[in-house]
Amino acid sequence: MDYKAAEHKVKPGQKHYKHVFAVAAYGESPYLDKLLHSLTKQSVPSRIILCTSTPNAYITSLSAKYRIPVYVRHGAHGLKEDWNFAYEQGARFAPLVTIAHQDDLYFPDYTKALLYAFSQYPDMSVFCCRYDTIDAAGNTIEGKSEQVKRYLRILLRDHAHADRSFVKLSALRYGNGIGCPTCTYQTRLCGFPLFQNDYKFVIDWDTLIRLARLPGRFICIEKPLMAYRVHSGAETAAQIENHNREKEETEMFEKLHGRCLSRILMHFYRKAYAAYDTEPKTCQS
User: Fold this and answer.
1) What is the CA radius of gyration of the chain?
2) What are the CA-CA distances from residue 279 to residues 29, 166, 235, 271, 276 (Å)?
3) Are 50 and 90 in contact (CB under 8 A)?
4) Do 275 and 144 touch, CB atoms closer than 8 A?
5) 15: Cβ–Cβ under 8 A, 6 or more apart, which residues?
6) What counts of helices (H) and strands (E) characterise the chain?
7) pLDDT tens, 55-93?
């Protein structure tokens, strides 16, 4: 299967779907096959596309296996550039775009829940949900980080008032309460480019704060509709190892609360880094 060279420009009049999963594929992730399988098993089908800046035979073989087109971004790999490219390619086909992370899984009713929320709240700018945490083998593990995030999202449960900036920001002021891979963006309200900062770890957190201050409703479904994979090869683990996560999170807290309160918040926030132990404890069920 030949790669399809894609343009950055979003062309109007081509939106034949309500929702698209734009998979940001990089290198040769051993979990990409499982992700694509989960997307094809949605109870309500969505358009699926693969987007990459690292074309290779492995991605080609999976695109052929699942009959999913590949769009290639020419140029050096970069998180902001790759995610914006996936978002913009998805926007060509649908008003709702999920940037699917190649290590994760989406449960069968993700799209169903998303589209129902959109039908109830057409001004929904961001859709998000609760997630399960899994290890490299796919076993469900204790997700302490997600437990904390649920507390941060308490006000978002009131969908009637989730268009107010202070409600949206309540999930973001004391940490990022919204899981990045759970998010779907309505392109009409989120605009282009979606990611406008140069962060490597808090790129989504900073972006959500910007979107929270714009018109649009954040709809959060407190039901696990996807699984977030924790493993030693993940980008999050690398950002912890090189201390960039701590640097960027400290900067975010300082912007939101000032230096003194930032130090207190980071004292507790560092405990979340333990979630990336290479051999996490598996939950019994």
Assistant:
1) 18
2) 19, 39, 17, 16, 8
3) no
4) yes
5) 92, 93, 94, 95
6) 11, 10
7) 999 999 999 999 999 999 998 889 999 999 999 999 999
